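Shall we go through a protein fold together, starting from nothing but its sequence? Label the sequence line and the structure token line clearly, so we can match residues to local backbone shapes. Would you write everything just below, so we can both look at the same thing?
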Amino acid sequence: MYIIDEKNLEYRNGDNGPKYLMKGPRMNFAIVQFPPGCDFKAHYHNIMEENFYVMEGEIDIFVDEKKFTLTQGQFIHVEPTEKHYLINNSDKTAKLVATLAPYQESDKVETD
């Protein structure tokens, strides 16, 4: 058992990207921040499933080229091999919870 305080961690890219509260051994758990215009490059996972829950703001997510606009309180589940791309097209910062499981040290395949 352990406790992590999000305030003690940093986002990967300063003010955006994931902030991992846990990486393994069975899953990843992150808070992800997207300022306006910020995106995640399109990718998929061979083994891991990925979930996103919108805590604040609005985010556009493309899953296998189909667009979904999620707002606060909405959740999306992405199966392994489903290509997904996230972008904040709004004028406010979006903050999401992201989980990936089962844990794999390297399972991300970037695409166009």
